[in-house]
Amino acid sequence: MAQILPSIFGADIMYLQDDIHFLEEEKTEILHVDLMDGNFVSNIAFGPNQIAEMKKNSKMVFDVHMMVQHPKDHIDDVIATGAEMISVHYESTPHIHSILQKIRKAGRKAGVVINPGTPEAILEYLLDDIDYILIMTINPGQPGQTFIRKSLEKIRQTKELIGERKIQIEVDGGVNKEIAKECAEVGAELIVVGGALFSGDKKAQYQALREAIK
Known about the structure:
single chain; 214 residues; alpha/beta; 9-stranded mixed beta sheet
């Protein structure tokens, strides 16, 4: 069954604690947290210290999406935050295997992220080293973009590539309730939502999103 992963980057920074409390009350299982360095992507967001502080004050599973150049320089700090899920961009390092193996050795779930322009075929030789695949459905690091429709075919193809392996597909970018439904129908199990959840009536938006993927 698919589930919604709220992206805390989409929340109002002035009410971050309130929004985390809201998500806890809504029995959210997994919180998606972006880590951006201002180099791999233009934005800068939650560093390891901020993630660790949020983690200390939450019972949710943390899914940290590393949008950084040279992830090997940051991976120890991210593991130390206590995050249970950590994903790294295929495009960010020539040594993706070693980082994924390090994440798993630390007892965490390891994910690999692919950008819209990266074909899913590159995952073939990584499938034995990952627990989930994060398919970017917009270009990473900039909110407010439109969902790339070709991503639905990419999700289907990735599902076929995975076969019988116990690897989950996650999607992130430009998702609203209609798109969440479409993504779930073609095989996405973890659906990241930011602005479409945190703008307006959060409770009503969250309920609508959950209903859409049932």
